[in-house]
Amino acid sequence: MESKTKLTSDSSEWHWWLLVAVIAVLVVGAASITIWRDFHELRHKVPRIRRPPGGVMQKYSDALHVSTQFFDVQKSGKLENNRIKWRGDSGLEDGKDDNLDLSKGLYDAGDHMKFGFPMAFTATVLAWSILEYGQHMEAVNELKHAQESLKWITDYLINAHPSDNVLYIQVGDPDIDHKCWERPETSTEKRPTIQVNSSYPGSDVACETAAAMAAASLVFKNQDSGYSKLLLDHAQKLFEFANSYPGVYSKSIPSIQDYYKSSGFVDELLWAASWLYHATGDGYYIDYVTVMHGNAFANWGNPTWFSWDNKLPGIQVLLSRVNFFGTNTQISIIENMNLQMYRRTAEALMCTVLLPPPTNKKTNGGLIWVNEWDSLQYAIGSAFLAVVFSDYMFASKTPYLYCNGKLYEPMDVRELAVSQADYVLGNNPMNMSYLVGYGLNYPQYVHHRGASIPIDANTSCHDGFKWLNSTKPNPNLAIGAVVGGPFLNDTYIDSRNNSMQAEPTTYNSAFFVGLLSGLVTSSSVVISFT
Ligand SMILES: *[C@@H]1O[C@H](CO)[C@@H](O)[C@H](O)[C@H]1NC(C)=O
Ligand SMILES: *[C@@H]1O[C@H](CO)[C@@H](O)[C@H](O)[C@H]1NC(C)=O
Ligand SMILES: *[C@@H]1O[C@H](CO)[C@@H](O)[C@H](O)[C@H]1NC(C)=O
Ligand SMILES: *[C@@H]1O[C@H](CO)[C@@H](O)[C@H](O)[C@H]1NC(C)=O
Ligand SMILES: *[C@@H]1O[C@H](CO)[C@@H](O)[C@H](O)[C@H]1NC(C)=O
Ligand SMILES: *[C@@H]1O[C@H](CO)[C@@H](O)[C@H](O)[C@H]1NC(C)=O
C-alpha cells in the first residue's frame, strides 16, 4: 500500500507542520500583540504633534512694529523715508578722507560709533530672520521695513570694502566720541576710520561681514538680482581675504581692543562658510565646515551662547537645516556625519536651555541667565535660535528632542522661546517691558545720547553732559531699543548713566526682531533659502 504508507507518512508530516505552524502563529502573534500594544501606547502618548495656533498674535505683532523701529533710530547718513521725528541727517562726511562714502550704516548703541564687527552681525541676524520668517513679517506688514533696514547696513558694508584685502571696520574714535554728549545731527568731532588689510588682518570682522553679505544676497535675490550678485561677490572675496591672511582684528590693531574685542576668528570662518554654502549651494563650503575644519574649529558637543562674539550656536542651528531638510549638493558620508555633529550640538544647546536648573541657569523670573552685561542678549539670542529650531522640528515632523532621558516636543522648544519674549515684554517681577515704547512701563532713562537731548537743545560736546545728568526722563523715545536688561535678581535700575543695564544695542534688536517674527504667527519654515 504504497499510497497508504504514503498517506500515513504524509499524515505524520502534516501533524508536524501543523505543530510548527501553530507555534509560529503563537510566537508571531504574541510579538505582534506586543508591537501593537507599544505602538498604541506611543500613539496614546503623542496623539499628534502639538502645534502653535494659526493666525497673527496681536501682542507679538504690536511688539514687532515697535522693535523694527530701532534700526531707524540708529541710522547714520542722509535719511530716506525717515520714521523717527527727532532724527535727522548725520555722519554725512564719514569716509570722506579716504574718498569713500561711509555715511550709511547704524550707530552701535547709545553713542555714535560705527563698529563694523557688531554692525555686520546685526545684519546677519536680521537677514537670517527675514529668510526664515519673511512670510510672517509680510503678514504684519513689516517685511519691506526689515529689508530696508538690512539694506541700510549692506550699502555701508559694500562701500567699506573698496578693494580686495581692504575692509574698513570702524568709523569714529571712541575716545573722542565718548568725551561728548551730543546729538549725532550736531556733532562736529573728527570721525577717523580704521581698516584691516593684508598687513593688519582681521579674519573675524572680514568673515562676519562676508556672512552678512552672503545672507543678504539671498534676501535680495528675487527682487534685485544685480545687488544680490554684488553682495555675494563681496562676500566671497572677504572670505578669501580672511583665509589668506588669518588674524584677530583686535590683536592686529590693539588700539581698538577696548570695544568689541574678538575672542577668536575660527567661529566666524565657519559662520561665513555656512552662509556662503546657503547662498551658493557649493559643496566646497560644506567640505570647509566639515572635513577641512570641523574637528579643529567647531567645538562639537559643547554648547555655548550666541552673541556678537560667538557665532558657533548660530552655525549649529543653521547647519541643522541641512540635516533636517537634506540638500541637493553631493555630500560624502563623512561630511554628513560631521553635519550630524553640528545638529547634535544644536540639540545640546536646546537641552541646556530647556532642562530645569541647575543645568540651565535662570533668574527666579524665568530669564535665561549668562552674564550681567547686556544680560538680555544671551536670553533673546538663545530664544531666537530656539524658535528657529522648533520650526525645523515642526517642518520636518520631528516629534521629539531627547535631553538626558527627557523628551521635549517642538512645542516645548517654542514655549521656551515664548517665555523669554514674554519676559522682555513685561511678564517679569518688575512688570517692566525692556522693549522701549512697548507697554505702559518701559525704561525712561535709556543710555542714548540722541534720545536724551531735546531736538532744540543749544548744547554741544561738553555742556551736553547736562542731559546725561538730568533727572528728567528722555525727551525722545528710543523706540524699539532693547536695553541691556535686569540683574540676576530680576531688578533693573532705570538710570541714564547705568550703561550696563540701560544701554541698547542694534544686535539686541536684531535678535528680538527675529524672535518676534518667529512667534507672530505660525507656518512652516521654508525648506531651502534659494
Ligand atoms: C593697513 O591697516 C593698518 C591698520 O588699520 C593701517 O595703519 C595701515 O595704514 C593700512 N595699510 C595701508 C597700506 O593702508
Ligand atoms: C507686578 O504685577 C503683579 C500683578 O499685577 C503685582 O502683584 C506685583 O506687585 C507687581 N510688581 C511690581 C514690582 O510692580
Ligand atoms: C535754546 O536757546 C533758545 C534761545 O536762547 C531758547 O529759546 C531755547 O529754549 C533753548 N533750547 C533749550 C532746549 O534749552
Ligand atoms: C554732569 O555730572 C558730572 C558728574 O556729576 C559733572 O562732573 C559734570 O560737570 C556734569 N556736567 C554738566 C554739563 O552738568
Ligand atoms: C540685585 O542685584 C544687584 C546687583 O548684584 C544689587 O546691586 C541689588 O542691590 C540687588 N537688589 C535687590 C533688591 O536685591
Ligand atoms: C557715569 O558713570 C561713569 C562710570 O561709572 C562715571 O565715570 C561717570 O562719572 C558717570 N557720569 C555721571 C554724569 O554721573
From TrEMBL:
InterPro entries the UniProt entry points to: 6-hairpin_glycosidase_sf, 6hp_glycosidase-like_sf, Glyco_hydro_9, Glyco_hydro_9_His_AS
Active site (record annotation): H447
EC number: 3.2.1.4
PROSITE patterns (UniProt xref): GH9_2
Domain of life of the organism encoding this protein: Eukaryota
Single GO molecular function: cellulase activity
Reactions the enzyme catalyzes: Endohydrolysis of (1->4)-beta-D-glucosidic linkages in cellulose, lichenin and cereal beta-D-glucans
Domain Glycoside hydrolase family: 60-516
GO annotation, biological process: cellulose catabolic process
Transmembrane segments: 14-36
Pfam family, one: Glyco_hydro_9
Keyword set, alphabetical order: Carbohydrate metabolism, Cellulose degradation, Glycosidase, Hydrolase, Membrane, Polysaccharide degradation, Transmembrane, Transmembrane helix
PANTHER family (UniProt xref): ENDO-1,4-BETA-GLUCANASE
Family: Belongs to the glycosyl hydrolase 9 (cellulase E) family.
Name this protein carries in UniProt: Endoglucanase
Organism: Helianthus annuus (Common sunflower)
